[in-house]
Amino acid sequence: MRTPLESVIFHRAAADKEWLRVCSADAHQDSIDLDLPLRDDGLGGMQQVGEVEVVRHYTRLSTLNWDIDRGLYPLGSCTMKHNPRLHEAVAADPAYAAAHPEWPPQFLAQHHCIMRELAQDLAQLSGFEQVSLLPAAGAHGELTAVFMIRAFHLAHGQKDRNVFLIPDSAHGTNPASAAMCGFKCVQVTSGKDGILRLEDIREHLNDRLAAIMITNPNTLGVFEEEFSKIADAVHAAGGLVYMDGANFNAAMGVFQPGRIGADVMHFNLHKTFTTPHGGGGPGSGPIGFNRNLAPFAPASGDPRSIGPVKSWLGQWGMFIRAWVYIKTLGAAGLKEVTEDAILNANYIRKRLEHVLNLPVTTPTLHEVVFNDKNLPNKVITLDLAKRLIDYGFHPPTVYFPIHVQGALMIEPTETESLDELDRFCDAVEAVVAEAATDPAHLKLAPHTTPVSRVDEVKAAKDLDLVFKSTENA
Amino acid sequence: MNFPADLKYTDKDEWARVDAPGSVAWIGITAHAVEQLSDLVFLDLPEVGKDIQQGEVFGEIESVKAVADLYAPVTGEVLERNDALIEDLSILKSDPYGKGWMLKIRMEKVSEQDGLLSPAAYQKSVNDRSAGH
Amino acid sequence: MRYSAITPSDRQKMLERIGCKSVDELLQSVPAAMRTRRMPEIRGPLPEASLLAELDEGKVPAPKVALVGGGLYNHFISATVNSLAARSEWVTSYTPYQPEVSQGTLRMYYEFQTYVSMLTGQEMANGGMYDGSTACVEAVLMARRLRPKAKRVLVSKALNPEYRRVLATYLQFQEVDVVEMPLDHSTGTTNMPADAGADDVIAVVLQSPNWLGVLESTANIAPSAFRIVVVTEALSMALVKPPAADVVCGEMQSLGIPVQLGGPTAGFFATAKKHIRSMPGRLVGRTLDRNGIEAFCITLATREQFIRREKATSNICTSSGLMCLRSAIHISLMGRKGLEEAARMSARAARAFLAVLEELGLKRVYSGTFFNEFVVDCSARPALGARLEAAGFLLGIPLDKHGHPHHRLIALTELDYARMPAIIKELKAHAHAA
After folding, report:
1. Does A416 touch chain C (CB under 8 A)?
2. Most buried residue, A325, A389, A448, C15, by most Cβ within 10 Å?
3. Please, how many CA atoms are within 13 Å of residue C105, restricted to the half-sphere of its CB?
4. For residue A463, is it within any domain?
5. What is the pTM of this model?
6. pLDDT digit string (tens) for C309-327?
């Protein structure tokens, strides 16, 4: 049964269609004159659609999306795990959804209690002394940490410490965040085994070094075994260590970044703590930090605080979801989360290690990176990814990390069943077989989606970002 | 790939054609640079009258998947800008050294051309960089 | 544990296939010295009913009336919005990097961009930012990129104090002077300096309606200035066009997003087409697929962090997807006529309530035109606010901690319009008990 391919809602809009009335008219208030400079441009051409059509429209649009409830998203470093319904129900309770930060504190006692406990639990899990819940997303948490690092060095009279060391495997937000604070990003290269070693960064250990940014396990899924050694050397040189906590799903109950040398780390509540991805947000990126950085944190109360990076308290709607998750599982449950995440990823690695090329053979934890080397008939990672869609799977992350040519990064998470993992591996095997037997068909994939490969060149050249009614043209 | 003999080059894949009297240069990017980019979408060049500095970024060329900085091979003032190229980037694929010129520059330091690469030296630079992949 | 789909026998099979005896063998790559020694102290596990019971017991009753704004507004949101936005295809889907499996999300972002363009009167808008405060910051950072030699940012004293503090945080390392533009204490509008258009000025930042509720104008700003107008009460745009500006940015929360203590919400950012390549945030464009069918995709991604890395226009990655969806659904449901009606009701409710306050001897502090929020001086009845609060009626936000004892910032919306007689009755009961 096919749902019509629904275009954007403006095609349904008309001046004489129905609209939603909020409440009954009140004669007394309606007699009040509005002394306002009213706009006269027809609200930019906005019209009405009517409720029935609105429901039909957004329902149809939703069916054009893949989602985690329907099936696996093996996206590396995204940690697309199951999003519990319980969290949505609690967050929607008006006691939590309608709360306003300017209400007097007695109305917000429970909310603050929940936030305190969340911060404490995140600190306990990560081994950091304190946690700030404020940043709105992972990249925002990174930026907050970068600001704190800058403030730290300035407070110590070290204004020339201008260099951030960033591995070639880092996520793009790392250098972007560092650059937003005026730091110079210097790329360091990991070894062929995927591990960053002290010798790889030794030449940069000088008085220009502000910090190093490390993801651990890194984006290859490999644990950075020299992390503490590197941290010690960076500290000795006067620098600080930032850990990108995107892969924290591999850490719980296994290692604590705050105790092995990291000075500050961001969490992604929308990854490890399963607040839903929402088609591109909202996220939440609290940061954990140790006492050397504590005075500089937002809302530290210390005059050296960098100040707030966002209005109000942070992503409260995500805090309550993450709090429910942590309470539901407890410490033992979260340790099992990490263990199963690592088990699932290693199972996929074993099943696919002779199907796809494994560029780095070092042991991996919760994710694994393959690439398209040795695929016949010039079939590339992109083709594999698109064809997997026809088999009922969202593609893995492609072309990241960038230092691996044609990378295919797979992270199943702990909430996938063995059955789903096997089906996924079967599909990968089938697609790789097609590369040899029917490459032409493969390269035009996907064939079963409402739209097929999209002309991205045209999208960039003939920019069409805002609907223009042909009537008004 | 053949690089025209009458041009000079940089290892950032730019070319320069210096007029015989030596004070005006036409600059652009090489076929090698164009090949690396694919799917060209946008070109950002400075306006007439602006100054560019050798070795510094003077503009950007954008494809769907990447943006590449354009580095000035010489120092000087922009006398003309190839607006026809901006309108139709496909010229870069067909004629990067002729109709694909980007800027005409009044050179401030004529001696800068001596520091640029010959076609052979540029070929070597391209080979060295490709071997790294 | 809850949410696991792997049974003990599955685990056995998997370990055998991998060639390990236990999961612990898979952790060998973590050196022993770096392993966690003790279990973190975390309360739990709590099963569902126990957890809900605990939450229930700890709840504090919400205020019965809360005429509180200050940048976040309690507006009407239909059950229809909540129901549609709760569909798992919206909630649990990922960022639309693979357009073939995310056409729903991509179409939604295009709608959001279009709605923001309509509301702000600007040519172009992005797919959302974290919130109004960071949208404001991004506007200033964009102005800085466009004017690299300029050094000063002129910021209105009537910009929301939360936003001013966030701006100060971001700018403290940028070698930029933030200069405060003072208030006219009679009208509540900003006094624009004569040199706002000077070469060394990065941007002029104003809010309208401003933090005191008063509408501002950019008419007296030199045309050469880069004008940034911030809007925190998005519903105001249904009746009042934002002042002419180079960037209009702010907070979408008033349109379909619950207050949620201020997060998550959605920031909006709109500007002229010519600034497109300097614009931060995600952009979704309309194109065709290889069969000529209309399709949408993320475009100009070369500005974004995952490609441009340290030269990105911003480091923003995950932003506000689901909140943008809520706004789009809400705006679609209300349509132009519904938004205009709700806006008129908000404005009328504010004026009706103000009239009653004036009858009680309380005066409005500023004379400038307001939309749905205003400041009153309560010194004629100093005990009123506290007495009302004790009865669960919040008479706006006290401005004591902002240096204005006895001033209160009061906001009303269409929800207050709907129960105005009851609100007035409650107010008068406590006023007369004074």
Report:
1. yes
2. A325
3. 34
4. no
5. 0.94
6. 656 667 777 789 999 999 9
